[in-house]
Amino acid sequence: MPNHLLFYAYTGRQVAECRYFLLKYLALYNLKPPAAIIPVIYTNQPNAFESFTSFFARFQMPELLAAEKPVAVTQLTKTDILQQFFLQNNGAVLYCDTNTYPLQPLEALFSDLAKGGLYLHAPQRMNETNLLAATRKLTAQKDKTATATATPTSAHMTVYNTAVIGLNESHKELIATVAQQTAGATNELAFNQSYTKHFGNAGTLKSAEKYIYEYSRLKEFDYVLQTFFTRNEEESIPNQVKLVHHLDAAVIQQQKEAFQKQPFFKKWLQTITGKQWRIRQYTDKL
């Protein structure tokens, strides 16, 4: 069964993040990634990835198929991308938001996907009120006769983050089901709840968190990546892999959160002495 790493990179930020993922991925395998795992990137900037292709047995940058209902390319959802993927491919797929990167080799994860495993990124405990607010809009869209009374639920529910979505072709009907349920949704929580529900009903839902790190909360990392690729654009991929080794979004995010959790007076003291956390302390070293 073919194995695929799937990405959607259409903005400058997404392209930089996806390149960072690939550099971290190549670093895990010492520039010799497994031939059985095929990167598939839907992008409008293929030139940004051309230098990566020689390191992979197969590397795909397919064209997006015309949608039944025209929509701006940058407004496509991860569900749209997965539907496009299964129209053109078979096998197992691990979709990753671009603001992620691998923490360890992925063969074991893909082996489980081939056996029918279902993966989302990480479980989160969600407040009942927030979850109902997101899903009530979907209910109203699908059932115009629905009353305002919500079905009682527990105070908290476990909902998975969908920064990573893993499945094989035997479960591709789940993507169509999610697409139908979330049509018109703009709230990320609505997508998370729908994937959690349908993947959970179809089998044992597992977390990909130990394999893939997600750094969407670290907005400042966009500036780090922009600086990194601007300064190292002429470097070869092997050199970029070496240079990116110490550029770890997880460590940077942990250091930022450690600073923010300090008492106000301690943060104030560090700020007036120039020792506060700031993103430039990382870009100055690039």
Structural class: alpha/beta
Say what the CATH topology of the largest domain is.
Spore Coat Polysaccharide Biosynthesis Protein SpsA, Chain A
For the record, give the distance between the C-alpha atoms at the N and C termini, rounded to a whole number: 40 Å
Largest sheet: 6 strands, mixed
**What ranges have pLDDT less than 50 throughout 5 or more consecutive residues?**
143-151
* Second rung of CATH, namely the architecture of the largest domain: Alpha-Beta Complex
Question: Approximately what portion of the residues adopt beta-strand conformation?
Answer: 15-25%
Number of strands: 8
Q: How many helices in DSSP terms?
A: 11
What CATH first level of the largest domain would be assigned?
Alpha Beta
Strand arrangement, largest sheet? 2-1-3-6-5-7
Helical fraction equals 40-55%
| Topology pattern, helix = H, strand = E | EHEHEEHEHEHHEEHHHHH
Cα-based radius of gyration, to the nearest Å: 20 Å
